[in-house]
Here is the input.
Amino acid sequence: MLFCTFIAADRNFASADEAVDIETGNRLASVLRAGRGVISNNQELINDASIGDKGFTGEVFFSAAIEAYLKKNGEHPLDEGLDPESRSMTETQINAMVEVVDESQEIINADGLAFKGFIPAVFARLANEKFGEEMADRASIKVTAPKELVRNRKARPDEWENEVIVTKFQAADWPVGEAFFEETAVDGKPAFRMLIPEYYSESCLACHGSPKGETDVTGFPKEGGSVGDLAGAISITLYK
Ligand code: HEC
Here is the structure.
């Protein structure tokens, strides 16, 4: 009897642990989306060839990102009540995003240049790379995509990501927007992995839409995507 109680308690522990991981994964994804949204909302300003100093500093980015997150989620991403590990990860992530904006001031403020290549996807990749360097063996965030859509080779799905994309997200009956998560291993290290699907909206199609193969403003061939098509996925890894 005692033994059974012990097992049950142990199971509860495991699931409470997983609940924290899911919450952490969702928060990291939501902060990434808030950050990308701020870049997107300022894209016209960033692309304005007639203005030099745009005043779009890391500090300005920070306030806008926190505000966007608050509006979407109803709570501060660095709320005091958060699990401490999760809070410290989110803090590292936000700092990484702010640093990317600060380090990009020269290009953002380039006078006489319209398109500068500073777009949400590039910003996200740079911020995720910085986060990964700082978190080393604790966590990583990556934006990946179905193999046939990948533009930057660094975004190529690994075996696990590809399997989830193909067998879950591309399955006709997968509920739109539903994440997939699993306790698994990465290079032999136990990890909680979470993949969150992303879809094209109207605003993506100037680059990822039709006609397929036509060069977009960034120099890549368009994918021929339509609104609602699976575009990619946010991939979160939390090492155990
Ligand atoms: C201005 C053109 C442009 C727009 C608009 C745009 N993208 Fe992209 N997207 C790119 C470029 C360029 C890359 C490669 C960035 C890099 O160097 O990592 C990219 C990368 C991605 C990736 C990562 C995988 C890869 O192919 O490297 C995903 C997923 C993605 N875009 C989805 C979207 C979605 C969803 C939207 C709309 C919300 C969107 N994009 C809007 C140009 C664009």
Residues 119, 121-122, 125, 143, 145, 149-152, 155, 198, 200-201, 203-204, 206-208, 216-218, 220, 231-232 surround heme C (CB under 6 Å).
